[in-house]
Design goal:
By secondary structure, the protein is mainly beta. The chain has one domain: TonB-dependent receptor, beta-barrel domain (Maltoporin, Chain A, Beta Barrel). Helices cover 7% and strands 53% of the residues. The protein has five helices and 39 strands. The chain has a 22-stranded antiparallel barrel. A five-stranded mixed β-sheet has the order 3-9-10-7-8. The chain is globular, with a radius of gyration of 26 Å.
């Protein structure tokens, strides 16, 4: 007899329920056929599946948005209907919906993005490190990863563009871009109100998570002035139980207020949006894997910690039809403030506690003109971005010193860009694709080493960057410096279209910014490298060349789509945060250009509408990674040799794959919508020396929605991570923990370097939701 674990029992019940749905749909069809002649004529209920068909995307920045199947680019896109069916509540929820994509948060600080696409990602919470995956909200680039992975509502669409997007989106999108488009004001008066509660169903875990939101939209002056107002509230009691004191851990409270106005004046449309975000709660649920199994949710920390986050995002988009094209201007502004406190040693002892404060404000403007004709599409534009960021870090490490560490950095960051992108039809079927972008990027930095010193705050401007350490240590306090990068990002490719399908090939080059490390903990060692011949206070930029071939195939009626892509990505001067435990400073995090590497991969996505009531989806991602040349001793054994070349690249899961389905069943004048999705992601190295790693995960999600006979009213039951798989934001090495596994450190050991700081993500969650739309 096969004994099912509790996780498998839950999954089995859901799968059996879903498996019965197609049969019920068939039976209903047969009965309705027999009685159709005598039935009164009724207006057919709109099929929910019809709302999640072909998707229009904006990521190509052409004059008119395009169907995702017509774009010669690897894109996974979700419209509002799909996002509703998936019950997506934050961007992290899309991690398990696309191949070779990881949209995780790092966990050190709540909401800190740690995105990776096609093996290009970062493993750091240092705010001066630029991302490999750019995030854009309503066309506005977010200049720091802080405050990105938070609650979302009222979304129009999300687009995940895989591979370098340097021509249209600039630097720091070498892995790809995530475009988040919030809802626009509507021509008709509409409203949407939602309430939900979910939480753990497993004993020994925390409490419930409550969410409520509402949106109203419509005309103030018909066809001239439209508005939208929205509000969101979330109160999470905390998913975890801290075995140190038996308390719930992970509590958070979040408020979001959002407003939008749209003015239509002939050929000119102005859309202004603003939202205010406020959130506070516990610090990370850090698990030390020197004491606890990495397959458990057990942890014990003596410092609950905290975080606060207050953010204002605003944008003004102007679209003006001029001559044969459309002139678009997007003005963006963001103000972000956050404070944190965390138990980094992840033990029940006071060994390493750390707090931070961050302030960031940015302004950006993109102006572009797009023309579309029968023979060509052309977009030309200019981009300006200016960001100021200040960061203070505090470390208390009693085993090392009774003194407190203070330091951090300030940075002014300016970007200027000019770009052109186009597609010209050589024949009715064959087109040439090309683009180019010139960028200039300047960073002015003032760094204070994170060292024992009198209390100070970089954010408040009281930390020194000149002179020597105030506690008499034989070292300098810090430095000021400036660096500028100029380069050109080209793209060249071909597209051949036939019978509702296409094949394409292109080469693209992108860059990720060099810059400065706000978290330097060994002043003398750093300066020995920086002041040596050929040295520098800054690290260099990273260059990525991507060679890709792909195909998008679909039947004439759109019931079957199959998208394939194969690529070779060559990385020069790979930019990495080298993460090592340190008895003196807890964790030493140094940023270097470590290696040249090659990543090859394959992706497949399929969607089939098997009947009017059933859609099946599947995806597959394969990646192979290897170092070509080593520029820095990443193994940490003191020499550069074959041991370095044999290491795995961090953040590269070799396999991702998934299957899912959405089924629709009409019962009278109501509807039952069932969705099940399974996604597997392979294990991957987290640290460059491979001592830290994140284990593989089998993620099962499911939800059943009853669209009631009352128009617009629905109720849902949903489950996330139903197999209760353990997942963490990282696996940082710390010098505090239990005995080594087998007495050695080796790649993918159960307890790397004796102890880790591994912030836990939520396990199994089950919830219910009520939604009313009008």
């Amino acid at each position: 007899m096969t004994i099912l674990t509790p996780a498998r029992r839950v999954a089995a019940v859901l799968l059996c329920t879903c498996a019965a749905a197609p049969f019920a749909a068939q039976a209903q069809t047969t009965d309705s056929d027999q009685t159709a002649a005598n039935a009164p004529v009724q207006e057919a209920r709109t099929s929910t599946l019809d709302t999640i068909g072909n998707i229009i995307v904006t990521g190509t920045k052409t004059q008119d948005p395009e169907d995702v199947q017509d774009v010669a680019l690897a894109i996974t896109a979700f419209n509002s209907g799909t996002l509703e069916a998936l019950k997506v509540r934050d961007i992290q929820g899309l991690s398990f919906q696309a191949p070779n994509v990881s949209l995780d948060q790092i966990g050190t600080t709540r909401g800190q993005a740690n995105f990776s696409i096609r093996g290009l990602g970062i493993n750091s919470s240092i705010p001066s490190i630029d991302p490999t995956v750019g995030v854009f909200v309503d066309g506005v680039y977010l200049g720091t990863n802080g405050g990105v992975v938070f609650d979302l509502f009222d979304l129009e669409s999300v687009e995940i563009l895989r591979g370098p997007q340097g021509v249209l989106f600039g630097r720091n999108v070498t892995g790809g871009a995530v475009l988040i488009n919030t809802g626009n004001p509507t021509e008709e008066f509409r409203g949407k109100f939602r309430a939900a509660v979910d939480g753990p169903i497993d004993g020994g875990r925390g409490g419930a998570n409550y969410t409520a939101s509402g949106v109203i939209s419509g005309p103030i002056v018909e066809d001239v002035l439209l508005f939208k107002l929205g509000a969101y509230y979330n109160n999470d009691d905390g998913y975890f139980t801290n075995s140190f004191d038996g308390s719930n851990h992970g509590a958070a409270e979040t408020y979001i207020l959002r407003g939008a106005l749209e003015v239509r004046a002939g050929d000119l449309t102005l859309t202004g949006k603003i939202d205010y975000f406020d959130s506070e709660g516990d610090g990370p649920a850090g698990q030390n894997r020197g004491f606890f199994s990495r397959e458990s949710f057990d942890f014990a920390i003596d410092n609950r910690g905290f975080y606060t986050n207050e953010t204002i995002n605003a944008s003004l988009t102007a679209e003006w039809d001029i001559g044969p094209g459309t002139l678009t201007n997007i003005l963006g502004y963001r103000d972000y403030q956050a404070t944190t406190d965390a138990d980094i040693d992840a033990t029940a002892l006071f060994l390493f506690h750390s707090g931070t404060e961050t302030e960031q404000d940015q302004i950006s403007n993109e102006l572009r003109y797009a023309v579309s004709t029968d023979n060509f599409d052309l977009t030309v534009g200019a981009f300006y971005f200016d960001q100021s960021i200040a960061y203070t870090e505090v470390r208390d490490i009693p085993p090392s010193t009774p003194l407190t560490f203070y330091g951090g950095g300030q940075q002014d960051h300016e970007v200027i860009g000019l770009f052109a992108s186009g597609q010209f039809q050589l024949t009715d079927a064959l087109s040439v694709i090309g683009g180019i972008r010139w960028s200039q990027e300047t960073k002015d930095a003032a760094i204070t080493y994170v060292r024992p010193r009198p209390e100070c705050s970089v954010v408040q401007g009281t930390c020194p960057t000149t002179g020597t350490n105030g506690f008499g240590l034989p070292e300098n306090n810090g430095f000021t410096d400036s660096v500028r990068f100029r380069n050109v990002s080209p793209k060249l490719g071909l597209q051949y279209e036939f019978a509702d399908s296409q094949v394409y090939a292109h080469w693209t080059r992108g860059y990720r910014s060099g810059g400065y490390n706000f978290r330097i903990t060994n002043a003398n060692a750093f300066e020995a490298i920086a002041l040596a011949p050929g040295g520098s206070f800054s690290f260099d930029e990273e260059r990525v060349d991507n060679y890709e071939i792909g195909g998008k195939f679909q039947t004439a009626d759109g019931s079957l789509t199959l998208n394939l892509a194969a690529y070779i990505t060559e990385v020069k001067n790979m930019q990495r945060e080298i993460n090592q435990s340190s008895a003196a400073s807890g964790v030493a995090q140094s940023i270097f250009n470590t290696a040249d590497a090659t990543i090859t991969g394959f992706e497949a996505e399929a969607r089939m509408r098997l009947s009017d009531s059933l859609i099946v989806t599947a995806n597959l991602g394969l990646i192979n990674d290897e170092y070509d040349a080593i520029l820095f001793d990443i193994s940490g054994d003191g020499v550069i040799d074959q041991a370095d070349l044999d290491l795995r690249l961090p953040r590269v899961p070799e396999v991702t794959w998934g299957v899912g389905f959405i089924h629709e069943l009409f019962i009278g004048d109501s509807e039952i919508l069932t969705r099940v999705n399974y996604q597997y992601r392979d294990e991957f190295a987290y640290t460059d020396n491979n001592f830290g790693y994140v284990q593989d995960i089998s993620n099962l999600e499911a939800n059943i929605t009853w669209n009631t006979p009352m128009e617009g009213l629905s109720f849902s039951v949903y489950g996330r991570n139903l197999f209760d798989e353990v997942q963490v934001g990282g696996d940082t090495q710390v010098p505090f923990g239990g005995p080594l596994s087998n007495g050695v450190n080796r790649p993918f050991d159960a307890a790397p370097a004796a102890g880790t700081f591994s912030p836990l993500s939520k396990g199994r969650q089950v919830g219910v939701e009520a939604l009313f739309e009008f």
